[in-house]
Amino acid sequence: MEMEDQMESQKRRGISKDELISERTGSLGCVGWFIVSLSAIFTICLFPFTIWFCLKIVQEYERAVIFRLGRITDRKAKGPGIFFVLPCTDSFVKVDLRTVSFDIPPQEILTKDSVTVCVDGVVYFRVSDPIASVANVSNADFSTRLLAQTTLRNVLGTKNLAELLSDREGIAHGMQSSLDEATDDWGIKVERVEIKDVKLPVQLQRAMAAEAEAAREARAKVIAAEGEMNASRALKEASLVIAESPSALQLRYLQTLNTIAAEKNSTIIFPLPMDVISHFMKK
């Protein structure tokens, strides 16, 4: 907390993070340089043996932050490869630069429209500034995990259930921007945030399913009514065409007989001449 307060006070005075780090890497003082000199003389005198204590190796994906008598020696972390330290006065902390992913535990959240949902997600982040990740926060990984949980609750608490279900990508981008801004002083870069699952209460799921089923049935009835209306219009137009040409009705009759005869059924048809029917219709 003291270190974070110092960062905030430096920001208010307009001092950048690099300038703050340069203040931390200041002079060791007379006593400090005297101890460092004794350590260097001791290392030179016992050179064949102390070489194994002075040379250190870090991997390609790691960096080393060196402390000399409790102060950061350089504004840039060492590595990858071999680097030199003085025994007794120097210590170093290894920082992994690879991208780390972790699952946000399921969080029960009350949305803006007073609906309780259970949401979880995944966050991808990496260390962008090894010195800041060591000097500005005690445990950057753990702090980022806690901040991700809090940010998830804060962001989703301002959204409606409909927005939560339909705009996951926008919510993820908002969380990423908020986390990235908050962890910048810790030397952490948040690369990606994803909402994995949104679990609704069982009663709410049933209510939404019933609502969706009712909406589908209403649309089906509207479509069926529109189909019947279009069919009636087509029949009306067909009747007008047949009325204009009496032979068209005979052709339609023969076409119907052909359709029935093509099917394998036990239907018996008794054809009657159209003249006989027309004779009775005139009476």
Automatic annotation (TrEMBL):
<dbReference type="InterPro" id="IPR001107">
    <property type="entry name" value="Band_7"/>
</dbReference>
<keyword id="KW-0812">Transmembrane</keyword>
<dbReference type="InterPro" id="IPR036013">
    <property type="entry name" value="Band_7/SPFH_dom_sf"/>
</dbReference>
<protein>
    <submittedName>
        <fullName>Stomatin (EPB72)-like 3b</fullName>
    </submittedName>
</protein>
<dbReference type="Pfam" id="PF01145">
    <property type="entry name" value="Band_7"/>
</dbReference>
<dbReference type="InterPro" id="IPR018080">
    <property type="entry name" value="Band_7/stomatin-like_CS"/>
</dbReference>
<keyword id="KW-0472">Membrane</keyword>
<feature type="transmembrane region" description="Helical">
    <location>
        <begin position="31"/>
        <end position="55"/>
    </location>
</feature>
<dbReference type="InterPro" id="IPR001972">
    <property type="entry name" value="Stomatin_HflK_fam"/>
</dbReference>
<comment type="similarity">
    <text>Belongs to the band 7/mec-2 family.</text>
</comment>
<dbReference type="GO" id="GO:0005886">
    <property type="term" value="C:plasma membrane"/>
</dbReference>
<keyword id="KW-1133">Transmembrane helix</keyword>
<dbReference type="InterPro" id="IPR043202">
    <property type="entry name" value="Band-7_stomatin-like"/>
</dbReference>
<feature type="domain" description="Band 7">
    <location>
        <begin position="53"/>
        <end position="212"/>
    </location>
</feature>
